[in-house]
Write a structure and sequence with these properties.
With 120 residues, the chain is mostly helical. It contains three helices and no strands. The protein has one domain. It starts with 9 loop residues before the first helix and ends in a 6-residue tail after the last helix.
């Protein structure tokens, strides 16, 4: 596999994908506090997809440097990039766990208000 250049260059896409990965759970949390409860599962799933694509883009960027034998760039960039990706993953997990928690709490509260026969 050769290096990806031009429109497919992974150095271009990781930033907007990261923004989308974080925007999905934030948007879902904002919707929750505006009493709009539907669709949070889709937004969580999209966050997972975009986060995975960010990781893939980073891997492809490193692959391009290896194929170009640009070891100086690897040595200067990969340690900082690894730290950034750890922070990215942990923050993404925290956002999505909080999103899941608030929605599950609301679902349990709504079930409790129905009573035994399912009436509100």
């Amino acid at each position: 596999m050769g290096t990806l250049k031009g429109i497919l260059d992974p150095a271009i896409y990781w930033i907007p994908l990261a923004i989308l990965a974080f925007s999905c759970p934030v948007f879902s949390i904002v919707r929750f506090y505006n009493k709009q409860y539907r669709g949070w599962q889709l937004l969580t799933f999209l966050s997972l997809i975009f986060g995975t694509l960010v990781m893939l883009e980073e891997y492809l960027m490193v692959n391009n440097w290896v194929l170009a034998e640009d070891y100086k760039t690897l040595k200067n960039t990969v340690p900082g990039m690894a730290l950034l990706l750890v922070v990215f993953v942990l923050f993404g997990i925290a956002l999505n766990v909080y999103n899941w928690y608030i929605h599950q709490k609301e679902i349990i509260e709504r079930r409790g208000k129905r009573g035994r026969n399912g009436n509100v």
